Amino acid sequence: DLKMAEEKIWMFKYFLLISTYILVTATQDTNYLVGVGIGDVTGSVAGVNMMGYANPSQTTEGIHTRLFSRAFIVADKQAKNRVVFVSVDCGMVSRTMKMGVIKALQTKFNNLMYTEENVVMSGTHTHSGPAGFHQYVLYDVTSLGFVGETLNAFIDGVTRSIERAHANLRPGNLLINEGELVGSNINRSPTAYANNPAEERAKYKYNTDTNMTMMTFVDASGKALGLYNWFPVHATSMNNTNHLISGDNKGYASQLFEKDMNPGSRPGKGPFVAAFGQANEGDVSPNTKGPHCQNTGEVCDIAHSTCGGKSELCYSAGPGKDMFDSTKIIGHNQYAKAKELFNAPSRVLPAGPVDFRHQFVDFSKVVVKLNATTKVKTCPPSMGFSFAAGTTDGPGAFDFTQGDTKGNAFWKLISGLVLHNPSDEQKACQHPKPILIDTGEITTPYAWQPDILDLQILRIGDFIIVAVPGEFTTMSGRRLKDAVRNTLMANGFPSTTKVVICGLSNVYSSYIATYEEYQVQRYEGASTLYGPHTLQAYIQEFTNMSVAMAKGVRVPPGPTPPNLLSKQLSFLPPVIMDEAPFLKSFGDVLTDVQPKYAKGSTVQAEFVTGHPRNNPLQEATFLTVEKKEADGTWSVQYTDADWDTKFQWVRTNTILGHSKAVITWTVPTNQETGTYRIRHFGYSKSLTGTLTPFKGASSEFEIEEGPLRWTNEMNRASERFNELNSLDASLRTV
Q1: What stretch of H or E contains 342?
Q2: What's the pTM?
Q3: Using 50, 70 and 90 to split pLDDT, how confident is the model at 23?
Q4: Mean pLDDT of 410-427
């Protein structure tokens, strides 16, 4: 027994020694610790306004694809310093989102491992996600104020993704690659871009950035864990008539790549995480056919984006036959280029410091040094007249037009009476912007737009992530990247230093146009909050932070932004109750499937349902498409996160609380034949507030070979018949 015990102890020591050797060797062969994670952030999928187009009638009515948070952690080999960058399928990241996530992380880990300073959260800018998650009035107007359930869904999902990345942290390397993707974005304000200096424009081939930068995460064995991709294009392939939750073109690109790398896994469930993040997309549209008048088909007036003097009929169209097809095309283009970069030789990011700088800056009063003798100031925020004109991706209403530097006496009067008349000082500061909404000088019921912004830089070796709290135009982004890179290299960084912009990060402050673009007052210039010198203020502050990073010194934290959560107003009615129709129960089938479907056709079933706001079913699904296996069990083939399914909620009787779920599945042409069914899941709410889960299932149906297969077989049969006829004729001749 003693001898056996000694052998066991020896075996344990040997195992421990080998394990330690493997870990040390792996760490020695790698440059960083890396981790990736994904979390479902889908929130209110029905009855809540969508964030992006500011269209009050565009409320959520179901799901096309779910929304996800994709988190990436990089630490030095000693795990002393770490940074986190997260891409979230949302319109933008709000101050309330970041506050909530940081609070949740510090509660979870009970330390200061993850803070305001080393966590960056960036939005993909999908315009097909729920609104109501900001703390500033202007951004919550069309959602009828603050919507707590939307904010909570984002906080929970983002936190979950970071926790998973933390749990997956391991020795690894980072591979950097970049390439050019053309034909997937256009400049939607070309006249403003053309106002930039000719010698500056001459340095670039296009009036949009066509460069795609990608960071791939691999473990010690070289196995790919995930990737983060930066490419500037608005996530507005889905237009303002859409009512289904969607990740838009960025979300579709992520789904395609993750499907490739996670065979057999449902969206959001596999280990490989692919983020297609946002960059300097301020004036960049995915609607590559350009703006045309909907009534005549003619090209819109280029300076003002109008048709007959009005903006409502001027729309840009994507490359597809409809918005769903356009989303697929632009998303697939990004995926295909990323796949090309993924398979190409990449630069291994050398071991280097993992570092960060973060500072709060009051942008309403930054003193900007233009040169040795000239100083100017930024202004309190305001929105110009052309803001109300919207963009060619989603036009505004009334008689507002882009490129308006004069304003309109009627609307100035209305704005002054209803909201606030800007002071003479504010008018002069914001010139030539005619002020429509003087957001910086309105404090009722609370602040309308932020004064204090987050500025943040992450460093991983010689790779620099500049996190900006808004939408930089193409040229604004180029200037900022050049300024940061040149400053770092002037202070000892290598010539290999790469700078990328993480747009729509940490808090939202609308757009950042160049000084020259601001003079034209297109939508982006009118939405540049802090006056004509906004961009130069950013460049100045980020340059100072870059110097501090290069010299290894900290920066002052700056003024603390307000926490306005306790002041939030909400006018969105709650769900009162759900009721099933007479002689029906929740989950019952209202309209059943057909017995048989061909590949390529669409299956549809309707169910008695409750209001989806009762429970967003994060990390779960409102539907499944299931296949009957040989042993009689059912396997899930699709959920509401898949591109091929749609879940639509329809209120059938408001007074009685009746509603139905319309579930559709477009059968892929390569789908296996066999027996299938559709299931529906949800929660109903009683008048007393009790939530009760329910489920239902359609009848079984068969998937058979589609028309294409039958056509091919008929063609082959016809060819064979003709051959036999020819042979018969030949034999008769003989």
Answers
A1: helix 323-343
A2: 0.92
A3: very low
A4: 82
Q: What are phi and psi of 381, to 5 degrees?
A: -65, 150
Q: How far apart are CA 690 and CA 578, in angstroms?
A: 10
Tokens representing 421 are: 């008349």
Residues with catalytic annotation? 285
Residue 708 main-chain phi, psi, to 5 deg: -60, -45
Instruction: Report the number of distinct structural domains present in the chain.
Output: 4
Q: Say if CB 94 and CB 133 are below 8 A apart.
A: yes
Query: Of 151, 17, 110, 92, nearest to 505 (Cα)?
Result: 92
Mean pLDDT of all residues belonging to the chain: 93
CA distances from 619 to 123, 133, 405, 508, 676 (A): 20, 20, 48, 27, 23
Residues placed in the known binding site for Zn(2+): 125, 234, 471, 511
Q: What are phi and psi of 459, to 5 degrees?
A: -125, 130
pLDDT exceeds 90 at position 718: no
Structure tokens at 571: 């006018």
Per-residue pLDDT tens digits for 541-576: 999 999 999 999 999 999 999 999 999 999 999 999
Same domain, 620 and 534: no
Tell whether 432 and 477 lie within a shared domain.
no
Q: pLDDT digits over 647-691, tens only?
A: 999 999 999 999 999 999 999 999 999 999 999 999 999 999 999
The SS3 assignment for 660 reads strand
Task: State whether 652 and 593 are in the same domain.
Answer: yes
To 10 degrees, what angle do helices 148-167 and 95-109 make?
A: 40
pLDDT at position 734 is 35
Q: Exposed, middle or buried, 632 (CB in 10 Å: 0-12/13-18/19+)?
A: exposed
The backbone region for 461, taken as left when phi is positive above 0, alpha when psi lies in -120 to 50, beta otherwise, is left
Q: What is the pLDDT of residues 64-76, one digit of tens each?
A: 999 999 999 999 9
Task: Give the domain-ending residue among 441, 468, 502.
Answer: 441
Distance, CA of 671 to chain centre = 29
CB-facing half-sphere around the CA of 104: CA atoms within 13 A: 19
Q: What is the C-alpha separation between 362 and 266, in angstroms, rounded? A: 44
Q: Is residue 539 located within the same domain as residue 685?
A: no
Is residue 266 domain-shared with residue 340, that is, in the same domain? yes
Non-local (6+) Cβ contacts of 120 within 8 A are: 83, 84, 85, 86, 456, 458, 465, 467, 502, 505, 506
CATH of the domain at 639: 2.60.40.2300
Is position 644 within any domain? yes
* Segment 380-387 mean pLDDT: 96
How is residue 362 written in tokens?
Answer: 């009051």
Binding site members: 125, 234, 471, 511
Asked if the structure places residue 523 within a domain, the reply is: yes
3-class SS of residue 677:
strand
Confidence of residue 716 (pLDDT cuts 50, 70, 90): low
Contact 69, 158 (CB under 8 A): yes
Same structural domain, 373 and 463: no
> What's the domain range around 682?
589-704
Report the percent of the chain where pLDDT is more than 90.
Answer: 88
- The DSSP output letter for 300 is P
pLDDT digits (tens, 9 = 90+) for 464-499: 999 999 999 999 999 999 999 999 999 999 999 999
- 212 & 259 share domain: yes
What are the phi and psi torsion angles at 140 (to 5°)?
-115, 10
Position 446 in a domain: no
Strand partners, 37: 71
82 lies in the same domain as 211: yes
Segment 257-267 shows an average pLDDT of 98
Q: Using the Cα atoms of residue 457, residue 342, residue 232 and residue 91 in order, give the sign of their dihedral.
A: negative
Residue 301 inside a domain? The answer is: no
